Amino acid sequence: MYAYQWLRFGKHHLTCMGVASGRTRPCVYLPQNVSTFSVNSMSPKTNSPYSSVDSGRYSSLVRSVVKSRVSAQTPETLEEENEHLYGPVVDNKSQTRVKRQSPESRAPKLIWPLMDCDRAVHTFEGTLGPPTRVPLQRGPGRSVVPSVTRILQKTLSPEQLFYLERWKKRMIADLGEEGFKEYSEGLFRQGNLFHNAVEDILTAEKSAKDTGPTDALESPEGKGFVESISHILEDVSGVRAIESTVQHRALNYLGIVDCVARYRGVPCVIEWKTSERPKPYLSNTYDNPLQVAAYVGALNNDDNYNYQVEHGLIVVAYKDGSPAHVHQLDSKQLLEFWQKWLVRLEDFVEQK
């Protein structure tokens, strides 16, 4: 509908205004083999006012308008298009509705440092005994502290929710309700399998879990994941924490870090991820950088850890053994994602 309105508007505008002003005029297509009558065959031929039209430019305009009919639409683009065509929406009180800024463009109301420089801490010296494993307190007696994952899920943008819901509907249409449930459970088991395999390699310890590290390494999926990250594990050393809880008591949130270790000599919070599609760019990892920044901020303010970290690492592994993609977050990048995390945290608190 919008493309049709634009086409009518553009044609009418160019017809009415273009000829008089000398600007671009519409291209008129005449049928072929039409005889013309001239009063005086010797009189000079008068040029049509459309002879100098820029047909290429006008054709591009038409193609762009028609193309918009099949372009991807989101709630945000539909709203912007409506406002462009019909003006801003006005409510019953005749007040112009003000659009809320997205978390990506807002600054946090409270600036909280990523690192706690006032704490007396030791330097990151690598393995000083077994890696730290602070268990997550479960059960009725534990305090209710929201997790990083929950906060991010509850503060997704309208655009993120739109694409997530569209993906879910497509998957259900292809697999059915039960099939989609089995698919989701399979992804969860696959993630646990991968983490168990990495844990076994980094700590060389046995475990009594239902899916033990040895089983994870011997399974086809486990072997594929290990092969995918083999070139990365060579650069990981000095493991200080594995599957360990970090909590920011001042900001009241917690999370479980996959790993804290050196990557090519630099102390990092490392997140191991799996994906069925390649993710060669940091933008492909969606909210994972915010998750890493939240973990780093919590770790730096948690008394269970006597060191500070200001770098992050996201490793995306693939079941078929394809080389994993590595996304490093330096101190500057991590600080930027930390600011975005603080905004999401504020949004979560305001929802309560």
Order of helices and strands: HHHHHHHEEEHEEH
Helix content: 40-55%
| Mean pLDDT value | 75
CATH architecture of the domain at 148-351: Alpha-Beta Complex
User: What is the name of the CATH class of the domain at 148-351?
Assistant: Alpha Beta
CATH topology of the domain at 148-351: Lambda Exonuclease, Chain A
Low-confidence sequence ranges: 1-45, 64-72, 89-100, 206-213
Major beta-sheet overview? 5 strands, mixed
Oligomer: single chain
Label the overall shape.
Answer: globular
Measured distance between first and last alpha carbons:
40 Å
Strand order, sheet with most strands: 1-2-3-4-5
**Computed structural class:** alpha+beta
Number of strands: 5
Strand coverage percent: 5-15%
Radius of gyration: 30 Å
What is the tally of helical segments?
Answer: 9
GO biological process, one term: mitochondrial DNA replication
Keywords: DNA damage, DNA repair, Exonuclease, Hydrolase, Mitochondrion, Nuclease
InterPro entries: PDDEXK-like_dom_sf
Function: Metal-dependent single-stranded DNA (ssDNA) exonuclease involved in mitochondrial genome maintenance. Has preference for 5'-3' exonuclease activity. Necessary for maintenance of proper 7S DNA levels. Probably involved in mitochondrial DNA (mtDNA) repair.
